[in-house]
Design goal:
The protein has a single domain, classed as Alpha-Beta Complex (Aspartate Aminotransferase, domain 1), CATH 3.90.1150.200. It is about 35% helix and about 25% strand.
Length: about 140
């Protein structure tokens, strides 16, 4: 079975974000960093060489493949800011309707710039997704 290439590592999130060439994208990344840190209560960590992740969860597929992944995260890609909404988007039609300009993939929310979206709605979307991805406490 192939090993997952994107893993949590000790690289500096701060250094990674300082290296984002586009000034506007770098500034937007700082806003997303703060938003996700406040929502999750977790410190950011690098996953691979280009994803800033928060929290983690363990998964196991029916095929037997298992691993650990971040609960939410983002990456300042060349084309877009990519936010990882790990619960997917099926349950968030109402929030997405109020978000603004964006595109989605399976668990990826693509935003050109933060001024294109409502930050309060974005925060709620991240909050709801993290809630879904957080295992329940047995208490």
């Amino acid at each position: 079975m192939a090993e997952l290439k994107t893993k949590r590592n000790d690289a500096s999130v701060e250094t990674f974000l300082e290296m984002v060439e586009d000034k506007h994208k770098r500034e937007d990344s700082q806003v997303i960093l703060k938003l996700m840190q406040e929502v999750t209560g977790d410190e950011p960590t690098m996953w691979g060489d280009s994803i800033v992740g928060f929290g983690s969860y363990d998964y196991k597929y029916a095929s037997g493949r298992e691993g650990t992944w971040f609960q939410t995260g983002f990456s300042p890609r060349k084309q877009n800011l990519t936010l990882y909404i790990m619960s997917g988007f099926d349950r968030y039609d109402e929030l997405l309707g109020k978000l603004g300009k964006y595109k989605t993939g399976k668990s990826c929310l693509y935003i050109k710039k933060l001024e294109d979206v409502d930050l309060d709605v974005l925060e709620e979307l991240v909050k709801e997704s993290v809630k879904v991805m957080t295992p329940s406490n047995p208490d």
